[in-house]
């Protein structure tokens, strides 16, 4: 398991799917130019619609989404592992799946993950989100095999459900991906704490590419894409503008962290209160 370079592409996606594909592709090329062998993009990579209905109207099923062949070709051209953080994939007349795709260096889909936990919340700021109105939640965790080891795939709001990450780590994940579009409000309060906690408690790297800034529809996302080490150190962090951040990932650091604190081996059954 040799050291490799990973990158987070930070975006400020709009409701223009084709323009978002172009912008994302440019930044992926920039990441490859910085030596990245594994590149991740945020949740809602190609579509940040004003509401769930607009997102549904602008979505495609998997067979017809223009992003998939574009990113498959790009992964093959650049010879990289490419995680497209999520696309809105139409799965019925009324619902999409919020789905991550991992492409291998030959442009093949190596793994898919549909977001399990859906963001339904009323924030103190007055912001309201009802993801479940137009999104079908996934029901399966996903581990992906790569040359460096197993990767656990998650999306955004999943970060608040630590048992998902523990299960992935106990099944061998050395790196956890958390592509996100955190709100500015929740990001300021919880983003760094949640992601560092997921890294520390699992002795795993965390790669969290994010949406950032004020989008065309007025929504504000927090940005601050992060790459976190298994001991909790932040290896790279963005601000709020679209950009690329990179860090070198040494899988041996996972073995070291888990040896120093072997908590993944110490779960015990207990009676619930």
Total DSSP E strands: 16
> What value does the Rg take, in angstroms?
17 Å
What fraction strand? 25-35%
Q: Could you list the spans in which at least 5 consecutive residues all have pLDDT below 50?
A: none
As for the number of domains, it is 1
For the report, how would you describe the main beta sheet? 6 strands, mixed
Notable characteristics:
16 strands, 26% helix, 29% strand, 6-stranded mixed beta sheet, 273 residues, Nitrilase/N-carbamoyl-D-aminoacid amidohydrolase, alpha/beta
Question: How would you summarize what this structure contains?
Answer:
The protein has 273 residues and is an alpha/beta fold.
Task: Provide structural commentary.
The chain starts with a strand and ends in a 13-residue tail after the last helix. The strands form four sheets. It has a six-stranded mixed sheet with strand order 5-4-3-2-1-16. The protein has helices spanning 17-33, 52-57, 67-78, 162-170, 184-202, 252-260, and strands at residues 4-10, 38-40, 81-90, 96-103, 109-114, 120-122, 128-130, 142-146, 149-153, 173-177, 205-208, 212-214, 220-222, 226-228, 234-237, 243-249. The radius of gyration is 17 Å and the shape is globular. It is built from six helices and 16 strands. The chain has one domain: Carbon-nitrogen hydrolase (Nitrilase/N-carbamoyl-D-aminoacid amidohydrolase, 4-Layer Sandwich). The protein is an alpha/beta fold and 273 residues long.
């Amino acid at each position: 398991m040799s050291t490799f370079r990973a990158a987070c592409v930070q975006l400020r996606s709009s409701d223009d799917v084709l323009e978002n594909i172009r912008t994302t592709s440019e930044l992926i090329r920039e990441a490859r130019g910085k030596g990245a062998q594994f590149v991740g993009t945020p949740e809602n990579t190609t579509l940040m619609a004003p509401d769930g209905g607009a997102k549904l109207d602008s979505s495609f099923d998997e067979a017809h989404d223009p992003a998939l062949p574009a990113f498959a070709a790009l992964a093959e051209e650049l010879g990289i592992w490419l995680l497209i953080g999520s696309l809105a994939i139409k799965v019925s007349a009324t619902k999409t799946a919020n789905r991550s795709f991992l492409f291998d260096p030959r442009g093949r889909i190596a793994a898919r993950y549909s977001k399990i936990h859906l963001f339904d919340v009323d924030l103190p700021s007055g912001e309201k989100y009802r993801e479940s109105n137009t999104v079908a939640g996934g029901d399966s965790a996903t581990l992906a095999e790569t040359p460096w080891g197993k990767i656990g795939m998650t999306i955004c709001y999943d970060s608040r459900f630590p048992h998902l990450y523990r299960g992935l780590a106990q099944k061998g994940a050395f790196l956890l991906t958390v592509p996100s579009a955190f709100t500015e409000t929740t990001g300021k309060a919880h983003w760094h704490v949640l992601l560092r906690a997921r890294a520390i408690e699992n002795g795993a790297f965390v790669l969290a590419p994010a949406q950032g800034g004020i989008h065309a529809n007025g929504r504000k996302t927090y940005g601050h894409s992060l790459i976190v080490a298994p001991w909790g150190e932040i290896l790279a962090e963005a601000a709020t503008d679209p950009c690329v951040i990179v860090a070198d990932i040494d899988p041996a650091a996972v073995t070291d962290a888990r040896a120093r604190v072997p908590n993944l081996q110490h779960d015990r059954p207990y009676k619930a209160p």
